[in-house]
Amino acid sequence: MNSFPPTFAACFAALFLCAGCRPPGQPTGADIELKPQEVRDFAVLYKQNCAGCHGEDGKGNTALGLANPVYLAIAGDDVIRRATALGIRGSLMPAFDKSAGGTLTDEQIEILVHEARARWTKSGSAPGASPPPYLAEEPGNASRGAGVYATFCAGCHGIDGTGTAKGSSIVDDSFLALVSDQNLRTTIIAGRPDLGHPDWRHYLPDRAMTPREVTDVVAWLVAQRKANPGRPYPSSESFQQNN
Questions:
Q1: How many Å apart are CA 217 and CA 147, to the nearest integer?
Q2: Which domains does the chain have, with CATH numbers?
């Protein structure tokens, strides 16, 4: 009776035992990079698309921190979703939805909105008092706003808004050109804890700002905005009229 040589039998047994084993060097599923539209991890999506402006862990950077409890108290999911998807006109916030020229799917935007609130809304972190509403409920009055500014803001930003050692200029042409009216309102209400900027309750030690005062001081700030900031030359219309 014929029999396999011992060496052949050992090799055959090894192959049998390794049936189904992954060949050396073959990548696993974890090694294959996901396509951008396939990413579902909040941490990855946030780091790639949001952290540069809103800061690590939502604590703020060049833009307001999304983990700010007052911001989360006044801005509903619809507000955050719309801002993420479509951007904010008159500001540096771009649109991220693919339908608006961005790179994220509707599902990815929903992950960002849902997970940001779930991770950063902590029990007991919401403001104790009811903040002014996210949107103004009546038109602002710039004349009244000048008085509101003098009362609540001039101590840090200066009598004319050009800044002091405590706070930067808030009438700077470039600053006002890059922030929307709503961004001004949101910052006044929610503050910027990362920059030491108080929220609506803490400008004065004895009282908070009222919704009307917030609306009016925004109107005053908007009135300081120049139509064409930073232009060292006249508009074409002015040039034609003067020549």
A1: 8
A2: 36-120 (1.10.760.10), 142-223 (1.10.760.10)
Look at 4-13, 76-85, 99-108, 162-171 and tell me which has the smallest mean pLDDT: 4-13
Average the pLDDT over each of 10-24, 84-98, 120-134, 144-158 and give the range with the smallest value. 10-24
Rounded Cα–Cα distance for residues 64 and 75 (Å)? 13
Alpha-carbon separation of residue 202 from 50, 158, 196 (angstroms): 28, 17, 11
Residues recorded for the chain = 243
Per-residue model confidence (pLDDT) at position 121: 87
Which single residue is written with the structure tokens 């074409």? Answer: 236
DSSP string, 38-67: G---HHHHHHHHTHHHH-GGG--SSS--TT
SS3 for 30? helix
pTM, 2 dp: 0.78
